[in-house]
Here is the input.
Amino acid sequence: MKFPFSLLFAFLLLGINLGCTQENGSGNQQDNGKIVLKEAFPQLSFIRPVDFQHAGDDSDRVFVVEQRGVISVFENDSTTENKDIFLDIEDQVEDGGNEQGLLGLAFHPDFESNGYFYVNYTASNPDRTVISRYQVSSTDENKADSATELVVLEFDQAYANHNGGQLSFGPDGYLYIAVGDGGSGGDPQGHGQNLGTLLGTILRIDVDGSQDGNNYSIPTDNPFVDNTDGFRKEIYAYGLRNPWRFSFDAENGNLWTGDVGQNRYEEINMIEKGGNYGWNIMEASHCFKPENGCEQEGLKMPVWEYDRTQGDISITGGFVYRGPSIEKLQGLYLYADYVTGRIWTLDVSGGGTPNNELLVRGDFPISSFGVDQQDELFVCGFDGKIYRFGY
Here is the structure.
């Protein structure tokens, strides 16, 4: 998520209408066959929500991550009026109000039996990313035990931006972690193409094991597991700038990632094991600095990209829709632009040029997407609301 909030606030202060196709959850808009955004939980509001998750435990609860360091839990019911604080680590999170903070949440596949969940947050002194495991309280399923923190992995951050932040368990049971290139602009320290650093990557680790003094082990089929060149064995894919939100297709396990661009292009990648997605040689499918050379052999090109000519300048990666409610969205990848609030569908099923169509527009910054246990899709807005799709 790379966007100057001062510019966004200027948009809002000037009253610029970024477009809107939504309603407030009251049902006033007539069903005309057009898909709209509806407030999913009209009685609830949040401060900069950046993630929406479920625990996979058949409890029909959902969890919203606030960037400041708070996770709320509540019933997945549009009429719910109350939420509980599941975890509050605001005092240990470095939240600069832009791209730092509590950025990701993932529940262990066996959460129902072990109570483990994982968070991704930024901390200071030194500036770093922390991946930690916590456990739910033994006496209250709506409370985490904050004393159970186990730091699984941490690594330094060179700058305050480009922290990635997504966490998710893949179909293989391993934990995947999105990591930005370390920040600033243009990748000045060359992290994107440096396999000796964890920055600019998607990581893949086994949190059910330990190895070499770490609270995790390396999956035996990770692409660089047998290297003797000093490459980080946690790396699953690399050459990413700021992968802001990835997801697995619930039907086939494909790994989709939105990667925020530098000055000209936003991109969507289908992540493959060992893939090099080009940053900072490329920005999307274009040479970033042609004067420095642009050797593209072996690089993975995006499945889709868009430029910034229409004001869309910061991609928010989404999900392939597999929910039960809207048949016309089945199998389509939904993603957004954080700044303009536009949400598109991307269809890659034809095997040729993907079909990209504008679906709806919100009048708020879209920070993230998430699904409930029924695979219904939700949208996190920086207006403090959570939305769903409907008619």
